C-alpha cells in the first residue's frame, strides 16, 4: 500500500495571495475603472485594463510553457502556433458575429468578399455557434499537439533537436496562414470584431467581463498547474526532466507522460489565445512568428522556470517593460530584450523567483548561524 501523501497545493500565504489576486481582478480593478471618475488619480483607464488583460493572457501562455519546459525539461520554441490557433478558432466566431456590418455589407467577411469568395469554406461550418467555437479553441491546438508530439516523442527526439523542430512547425504554419487562399485573412488576419453573444465588444461591460474572465482563468490555470506538479504525475514529470533513462528503467513509459503534458500545455496556450483576440482586437499570422515563441521562453526564464509563479511574474515584467520601451524607445526594444536574456543567463540562471529563494535561504542560514554562535 502506497504511503505517498501529496503536498499541499499552497501554503496559507499562497492561498492568501490567490484570494488577493481574485479580489484585485474581480472587485478592485472594475471599481477603479468603472466607478472612479476619469479625472481621479485612482482611475484605471481603459487602456490600462486592455494592457493588463493582454499581459494576463501572456501569463497563461507562460504557465503553459513552464509546465512543459520548467517541469518536464522540454524546451518548445513553437508554442506561439498553439496560442495563435486558439485565437484563430475563436476569431472565426467573432468574424461570423460581424454579420452584414462589414464594409461590403455581406454575410461573408470583408476579406472573402474582396477575394471574390462566394461561400464559406467547409472548415468554417458551425463557427457561428459560440459553444462550437469554444470546442475548436481546445480541439485544434490539442489535436495538433497530440499528433506532432506522438511522433516526436516516439522517435525520442529531444533537446535542441526538438526545439528546432517546434520552431520549424510554427514557421510553417505562419507561412501557411499568410496565404490568402487558406481562408484566414492572409497577412491581415482577422480584425474589426463587433460582438460576442450579441453584445458589443467595445462596451465597458464587455471589456470588463473579458478582463475578469481572463483573471479567473489565469488563477484557475495556476491552481491546476500547481495541483499537477504536486501530484505523482508531476513527480514523474520532474524525474523525466532530471533523468529520463532512470524513469524508463523504473518501469514508466515517458512517452505518454510527455505527450499528456505537451497536449495539455498546447490546450492552455490555445485558451490564452482565445482570450487574447477579443481584447486586443486582431489576430494575424505574425503571432506565429518564431520570434514570438522565443519570447515566451524568455518570460519563463526571467521569472524562473519550474516555479509557476515565476512564469507569471516574468510575463508581467517583460511585457510591461516592452509596453514602456516600445512607446519611449521603440527602435531599441529588441536590443533591450536581448540584453534581458543575456543578463538572466549570466546573473540570474534561476530567474527572479529563484534568486529570491536563494537570498532567503542564505539569510535563513545566516540567522541560524548567528543564533547558534550566540548560544
Question: What does this protein structure show overall?
Answer:
- The chain is mainly alpha-helical and 375 residues long.
- The protein has one domain (18-370).
- The protein has 13 helices and 4 strands.
- The chain has helices spanning 12-34, 46-70, 79-97, 110-114, 130-154, 159-178, 204-230, 232-249, 254-280, 290-303, 309-328, 333-347, 351-374; strands at 190-191, 195-196, 199-200, 282-283.
- It has a two-stranded antiparallel ribbon.
- A hairpin with a 2-residue loop joins strand 2 and strand 3 (199-200).
- Helix 7 (204-230) runs antiparallel to helix 9 (254-280).
- The longest helix has 27 residues, at 204-230.
Shape annotation = globular
**Beta-sheet strand percentage?**
under 5%
Q: Helix share of residues? A: 55-70%
Given as residue ranges, the uncertain stretches (5+ residues, pLDDT < 50) are none
